[in-house]
Amino acid sequence: MAYSNKAKSFYNGELNSIRQGGLFKEERYIESPQAANIKVEYPLGAPQKQVLNFCANNYLGLSSHPEVVKAAHDGLDARGYGMSSVRFICGTQDIHNELEKKLTEFLGTEDTILFPSCMEANAAIFEVMLDKEDAMISDRLVHASIVDGMRLSKAQLFNYKHNNMSHLEEKLQETQNCRFRLIITDGVFSMDGDLAKLDEICNLAEKYDAMVMVDDSHASGFIGKTGRGTHEHFGVMGRIDAITTTLGKALGGATGGCVSGRKEIVDLCRQRARPYLFSNTVPPVVVAASIKVIDLISKTTERRDKLERNTKYFREKMTKAGLDIKEGETPIVPVMLYNAKLAQDVARDMYAEGIYVIGFFFPVVAQGQARIRTQISADHEMEHIDKAVAAFTKVGAKYNILGKKRDEIIAMYGL
Amino acid sequence: MSEDVKKMIIDYVKKEYLEEDSGVDVNENTKLISSGIVDSFSMVSLKMFLEKKFQVKIPDDKATPEAFDSVNNIIKLLNDFTKT
User: Fold this and answer.
1) Residue to substitute from B41, B47, B52, B60, interface A, most A β-carbons within 10 A
2) Distance CA A258, CA A276 (A)
3) Number of A:B CB contacts under 8 A?
4) How far does chain A reach from its first CA to its final CA, in angstroms?
5) Pairing mode, if any, of strands A359-360 and A370-375?
């Protein structure tokens, strides 16, 4: 069929409505490696600007770490560029197996299977684990990739209010007749930066004979004393049945993800997971670099310790400066502005001050919860953080929001 | 449909989707989906509740965000699919 005018004008209409709704997303070109300090061309055609990056998932600062880059070069030389095959035909190298073993050991699970991304791990796992006589009981603020993954499963869908354990318990009671129940949550929630109460979740799971699945993408590598993730933080290692996580954030930041957990679940993924069966896996160069990443963070907790110090310092300074941040302990630090336009205006002014941050608003977060999500990295030095806080203080004063809380900010700017 | 049905749905929406301290009031005209009180993901559980409670089957193609966007809309939808 031809690309008709009808189709063309329909797509243009959709694009226009996105623009009119103020939701049009633009890319900004970074003309340097990913790091705390980056060179950006924005808007397109503007002169290159040196800014501090406070919105990357580069928690451990490993994205451009010299040893990781070298391992990638070596991997490229030793094992080539592409595999031109899915895993089970001729797309598995010894290093894929090595990385899976290293991830298993690092995460403290029984086995691991790599996926091209965590999005695809989440697309696979529910369909593999559950069928129509089963129930998925998920936190309402789980990542979009989990929502999509759950849609691919025939299991019945239930969800509970964010981090609300009594509501979760109600759902567990409601679903007693199902064959299997799976409690589904993020370990660290990406927009609020808060932690799932995994200890309580595991207790409820045991009480009601349910399994637990955690997406630890915003935790693997730095949450917990040795960075194993949210399960380490809450002392429930060995009690989580399936973890999905990404290599695309703290663990080098390139691409790739995995399902790690009970041996049978991983084995069944190898037989039935469609994104594993019908898509190439992580390329050799990324595998080689990821092995180096796991080696680096297994040897020393230096980077996650620095991240923890940086986070504490930033949170204290921002609170002292009078910004309304969501309390917590993770390096995801939302600066609450409530009003969507205000969030965009503040982000734009921060960029002018040399700090790269982004405003988030409905539908990415709930209506009236607009914010700037800042993310701290082990790559940040104290002077970077000081500079960011100074910029927030200057811009915050311009909009008269310093020392103001939710109701006062809404009274000035509306929802 | 009776006032009881209206109240039952409003109570369910409040209990199921709002935090106790949210300060949001829900009446029959309150926008549920477009306001973000019920996200598109949670609409599935709302549909399930309605089907179970009122013994109806709402076809997937009729379970649109518009049809669920207020308690009044939901009642209209239920009326369409309730056997008389």
Assistant:
1) B41
2) 10
3) 23
4) 45
5) antiparallel
Confirm whether pTM is higher than 0.95.
Answer: no
Q: Is B67 exposed, middle or buried (0-12, 13-18, 19+ CB in 10 A)?
A: middle
Q: Could you give the ipTM of this predicted complex?
A: 0.78
Q: Is residue A190 among the annotated active site residues?
A: yes
Do the Cβ atoms of A366 and B45 come within 8 Å? no
DSSP H helices, A182-262, are 198-207, 230-233
Share the mean pLDDT of chain A.
96
Q: b/e for A49-77, b at 16 or more Cβ within 10 A?
A: eebbbbebbbbbbbbbbeebbebbeebbe
CB neighbours (10 Å) of residue B29?
Answer: 10
pLDDT at A363 (0 to 100)? 80
Domain ranges of chain B: 3-81
A361 contacts A13 by C-beta, under 8 angstroms: no
pLDDT reported for residue A66: 98
Tell me whether residue A161 is in a domain: yes
Same domain, A153 and A266: yes
Asked if A200 and A146 sit in the same domain, the reply is yes
On the CB side of A124, CA atoms within 13 Å amount to 32
Instruction: For the domain made up of B3-81, give the CATH fold.
Output: 1.10.1200
| Greatest CA separation for chain A | 63
- Answer yes or no: is pLDDT of A377 > 90: yes
pLDDT of residue A1: 67
Query: Helices in A230-381 by DSSP H: which ranges?
Result: 230-233, 263-272, 274-277, 284-299, 302-321, 340-352
Range of the domain at A38: 24-53+302-413
Q: Annotated catalytic, A292?
A: no
What CATH number is attached to the domain comprising A219? Answer: 3.40.640.10
Quick check: B41 and A366 CB within 8 A? no
Q: Which of residues 49-88 of A touch B (CB under 8 A)?
A: none
Residues of chain B contacting residue A366, judged by C-beta atoms under 8 Å apart: 36
Q: Which helix (H) or strand (E) holds A174?
A: helix A165-174
The answer for residues whose C-beta is within 8 angstroms of residue A363's C-beta and 6 or more apart is A23, B36, B39
Radius of gyration of chain A from its Cα atoms, rounded to whole angstroms: 22
**Beta partners for residue A136, in sequence order:** A157, A182
